[in-house]
User: What shape does this take?
Amino acid sequence: MTAMLEMRGVSKSFAGVQALRDVNFTVEAGQIHALVGENGAGKSTLMKVLSGVYPAGSYDGAIIFDGEERRFRDINDSEALGIIIIHQELALIPLMSIAENIFLSHPPSRFGVIDRNIVHRRTTELLAQVGLREQPDTLVTDLGVGKQQLVEIAKALSKRVRLLILDEPTASLNEADSAALLERLLAFRDQGIASILISHKLNEVARVADRITVLRDGRTVDSLDCRTERIEEDRIIRSMVNRDLAHRFPERKVEIGEPVLTVVNWSVHHPLHTARQVIKNVDFTVRRGEVVGIAGLMGAGRTEFAMSLFGRSWGYNISGKVHLDGREPDLSSVPAAIDAGLAYVTEDRKQLGLILADDVRKNVTLSSLRRVSERGVIDDLIELKAASDYRNRMRIRCSDVYQETGQLSGGNQQKVVLSKWLMTDPKVLLLDEPTRGIDVGAKYEIYCIINELAEAGKGVVVISSEMPELLGICDRICVMNDGAFVGEFAKDEATQENIMRAIMRNVRMQGAGAGAALAQGAVR
Amino acid sequence: MTDKTVSLPETPKHAGFIKNNLRNYGMLLSLLAIMLFFEIMTDGTLLQPLNLTNLVLQNSYIVIMALGMLLVIVTGHIDLSVGSVAGFVGAVAAVLMVQYHVSYPVAFVFCLMVGAAIGAAQGYWVAYFGIPSFIVTLAGMLVFKGLALAVLQGKSVGPFPQTFQKLSSGYIPELFPSAGTLYPTSLLIGIALAFVLVLASAKSRAREASHGIEVEPYAFFLAKSVALAGAVLYFTYLIASHRGLPNVLVIMTALIALYGFVTRRTVIGRQIYAVGGNAKAAKLSGVKAERLTFFTFVNMGVLAALAGLVFAARLNTATPKAGLGFELDVIAACFIGGASAYGGVGRVGGAVVGAMIMGVMNNGMSILGIGIDYQQVIKGLVLLGAVCIDVYNQRR
Assistant: This one.
């Protein structure tokens, strides 16, 4: 077999953060090549380099396709060669028909007038190829996610695809749809279409992949041939997480007290798909002076859990009991939750955490304006003093507190957000990905702040997708998957392997039905 | 992390300060330049006491509405209905006072309440139902234009009682025997105002300095104070040499001061800017974004009603065409004054200066005899130019 695609020595960095280091990646014609790794390992970045989202010149290394070096300027260049990427968030236009979506960018036309008969005929052919029994003029919004995924694939086929890239295609699919999709990939392989499959569902990967490449911290750490030997999931997991904890985490004097936050039987439904239960009757406890981590894959429901607790800022039909500091407080709105002593540092600090056009001072005091005002009138001197105090205490690097937060680095922005919440004097802090996109030095400072908070007797909950971080700073780690806690480990028994295993065991249970259906070939 | 993080980078102080403040004063300087231009082009007619008084009276209702519109724009919305609402409220006032002989104060308060109710009705859809304000107020524009026509039954209604006319055409009572051509009471109020303004800014500067805050250089402060006092005194002198302070100018000044204070110094003001800057972040910080949005529309309704009353009193009649196109001047004033169409940015002072720029241009071009056709063209280009400069400044 000859290599269809070869990526040689690809490196890519963002503002000093190395996302990919010298990655080598080869796909042969008619191969299903699985790409696995933790969140942030560099899988999506690598695929964006391949598809031209990051144009030639913005990365180091070479892409060789069909034996020639290629320099893609944008996604059109890669699509012209038949490299088609299907993202996790589908790029379909809901209120257009299947046919219109498939031929959106390249409708068969004469003098700019679309030939609807050809569109209809070809769409019917393509839908038959992907095994989707729908009329071409059905609106995409009327289809389920699984069928939408198939429309995306039909769209790829219409562009004469040779290498299909699927980013977590089965993440939001039920068993039958997942099985049908994987069945398609196997059929394409027989027609000579190669696929790159990015997935966290290792059972699926082990089942359909011809080769598995493992990325970790932006490097290729393993490449396993599944044709010659059967690869066990444990083998893949070991490759995914096995690394020395080279990061340094500050020491802390651990003094854990009585429970400060107790959540019982917490249930949350999706705000739009109200029948879907996103958080499934979970129990959760944090003690004074304790740092509790919540591990899990993206989409496990961790953010949704935290936001639903924090003044019901996410979700619908929320039920369950919360005890905070010995009382059963009103948590029905964000102001009430703040008054009760809860703070939530969002995952997305630019969109949800900061007012980027406003200065440091205004951002720091936004949630505690009552503390710097009298009868609704802000005392600007008290406010300035409060903001300056936090600036010094948290070591926020800015020219002065009148500097716009939009101009600060990620780490300093995060310190501004933390300052805002510390100023409300919370009893429990929910920190959602507190170090995402922050350089190593600033991370260390954030860990120090977390330690100080715990030492001051606050309960701290850290949601993080970086497992070494959780292992380094948490006293206890709860593992969440699909809206439920599926494992809990004390600091000394937690390892990356058993956390990952807890997640995968649960994913496998969900995926088992799909596997069975696939084995029987029962789906069509 | 050494002491470096605390100490500030040393820059040439005066140059840096002037540069930082140029943007804040840029619009004011433009206004002065435009006034100077027309003063010269009209051979001094622009700043004649009679014309100046007229200029104030002509633009008072635009300025009043611009104060409310600024808050609406800062929260990231728009209100297209203000002209129609002003016209409708003027019509209601006319029917009440002229046809039903309701007393002036009762009708006045009732009309403001009507404005509040209209604002609440529109704000409810925008804030709690998430319907784009553009659409809600476009509907409001049609509804209240129609209702004004209905209330007046297609006719002009007037004249108003004398006491009501005084709202727009009256002047503050003269307490002293008139000395020559000057009105001493108005002059004294102007002098007192200039004194208070300078004193207040000196006090605030001293207070900041005593807390170790970097303050503007002394020379700059002195120049600013002299310019401010000079402008106030000269303006008062001109006004006092016609017929003294118009009542509506007193109302307008009080409102400008009030809204300036609310936007800069109060919790509510701060939260309004936060909602406009990033509504999601503000909500997650405990700001009641929906309620604030609702109240900015209620406030807008009240101010539109007040403007409608002032306009009706000025014309001394309510006509079905009153208020036509006011919303455009009001919105233009806010954007010329530096408000951002994306929300979160804008100053009361800017909106007032923006309204004055529009007013001076209207007035100056009319004196010069430029037709209404080209006046529109020029005003449109000034609006576009002002916003372009602002966008360019922000990109740098």
The interface with chain B takes residues 310-311, 313, 333-335, 337-338, 344, 346, 351-358, 362, 366-367, 369-370, 373, 376-378, 380-381, 384-385, 392, 395, 397, 399-400, 420, 424 of chain A (CB under 8 Å). The first strand of chain A starts at residue 3 and ends at 14. Residues 513-524 of chain A have pLDDT under 50 and may be disordered. The two ends of chain A are 31 Å apart (CA to CA).
